[in-house]
Amino acid sequence: MDTKVLNQQSQHWEKNFSSKPEMFGLEPSLPAKKALELFKENEINKIIELGAGLGRDTIFFAKNSIHVDALDYSQSGIKVINEKTKIQNLSDYISTKTFDVRKTLPFKDNSIDACFSHMLYCMALTSLELENLNNEICRVLKPKGINIYTVRNTDDGDYKNGTYIGENLYENDGFIVHFFSKEKVKKLLKGFNNILIDSFEEGNFPRKLFFVYNQKI
Description:
By secondary structure, the chain is an alpha/beta fold.
């Protein structure tokens, strides 16, 4: 694969976040609502959110008394989250950081209760980068810690459309998406037990996704 093409995605997201500060809407995502229930059931009140985007889920968690360390590699996205945090007086619940998840996560071993990411795993990441990311999440989670993530799956209408990049990555309208089969989800279980893989739809297209709930062994 051409890594230059993958690396250019950061510029594409930066441009879109700058020009469309509400491109995902203001309402929290369905996975965030589902994740909140699981966090409450497990008495978790502090999480990290990877690929926080424009913060619609970050704000939702904070309003429900969940402390969030929100990371995203778009400076524009983090700026929007910071503005929302200030306006809604949620600074006690939200901290932010511009960060590339291909690097070592900035948290200590066995220090985090839970991790949440909505469609981060299906960004322009190679299989090796996904394995490294998953290993990093496992490293920072406490024993029995929770990792909840969503991915667009191979039933999605955009799968095998657009420009083929390599592996299961395709580019449509400038966005590169890594599509997941259930087998691919199960390959990312090193250090984890899978509790749930659930199918759901989102948006007008609609996008077809998996909701994945894993627990650290």
